[in-house]
Amino acid sequence: MAEDHRNEQRHRTLKPALIVFNEGRSTIECMIRNLSEGGAQLKVESLIGIPDEFLLKLKEGAPARARVAWKRGTTIGIRFVDPISHQ
To answer: Which CATH architecture best describes the domain 11-80?
Structure first.
């Protein structure tokens, strides 16, 4: 098993969210699989069309600017440019 080098505690979750880009004109549905203050793991139907930087909008709270850290299959690891609260 790979060693975990994250500094923040990750919280497993299944929260629906939207990847918002193109100045708010485009959205892609995703599911947040785990969340920390500094980033998240997202599950998407397809990686096609997802930009390297976007807003992640949860049902509650303000959108957070995010940057893609890695992609694997239909899973994306992101880092928040502006940290958010997961509560």
So the answer is: Beta Barrel (2.40)
Tell me: the pLDDT tens digits for 15-61? Answer: 999 999 999 999 999 999 999 989 999 999 999 999 999 999 988 88
Tokens of 57: 């909008």
Q: How far is CA 44 from CA 1, 7, 47, 76, in A?
A: 24, 25, 7, 8
Report how far residue 29's alpha carbon sits from residue 48's, in angstroms, rounded to the nearest whole number.
12
Token digits of residue 76:
């994306």
Tokens (6 digits) for 32 = 């947040």
The neighbouring-strand residues paired with 11 are: 35
